[in-house]
Amino acid sequence: MTKPKSKTRKLHKNVAVAFARIAAARDALCRQISATDDAIKAGGGYVYFLRNSGKEMPPVSSRFLIDNGLVEEEQDGLFEGCSQSFRPVSFDRFHEFKSQYEASA
Questions:
Q1: Bigger pLDDT: 76 or 57?
Q2: 1, 41, 3, 20: which is closest to 94 by C-alpha?
Q3: Residue 50's pLDDT is what?
Q4: CB atoms closer than 10 angstroms to residue 73
Q5: Where are the domains of the chain?
Q6: Is 66:46 a contact under the CB 8 Å cutoff?
Q7: pLDDT per position as a tens digit, 24-41
Q8: I need a surface site. Which of 18, 26, 40, 70 has the fewest CB within 10 A?
Q9: What is the mean pLDDT of the chain?
Q10: CA–CA separation, 95 vs 62, rounded Å?
Q11: 10: left (phi over 0), alpha (psi -120 to 50) or beta
Q12: 52 with 27: CB under 8 angstroms?
């Protein structure tokens, strides 16, 4: 017999690593419109990178951080709600989100 699968939901490790990378660098996550296959399939039409270093960031994790409010807009977009740069929230807020995310199944 196989063991029944656990019903607990875990925050993907790549999301935590991406958040820690942005916060540790005291940098901002940036996104730029792109028509590359990876940007369209995984990044929602964007490529993601760190502003100061230019290091590429994983598109799926970056989208998750933005969509779930784990990085906050810097209000630098041409139109309201279209920010290009995002600052990480506090580690306390990140861990609070993680706890709530993993508690909900």
A1: 57
A2: 20
A3: 97
A4: 16
A5: 13-100
A6: no
A7: 999 999 999 999 998 999
A8: 26
A9: 90
A10: 17
A11: beta
A12: yes
Q: Is 85 helix (H, G, I), strand (E, B) or coil?
A: strand
Enter the tokens of residue 23.
């916060």
Distance in angstroms (rounded) separating the CA atoms of residues 81 and 98: 25
Q: Tokens 């506090």 — which residue?
A: 90
Which helix (H) or strand (E) element contains residue 78?
none
Structure confidence at residue 6 (pLDDT): 61
Q: Is the pLDDT of residue 56 over 70?
A: yes
Q: What tens digit of pLDDT does each residue of 66-78 get?
A: 999 999 998 776 6
Give strand ranges (E) for the chain.
29-33, 46-50, 56-57, 71-73, 85-88
Token pair 């709600």: residue: 81
- pLDDT higher than 70, residue 90: yes
Tell me the CA end-to-end span of the chain in Å, nearest whole number.
25
92 contacts: CB under 8 Å, gap ≥ 6: none
The residue type of 88 is P
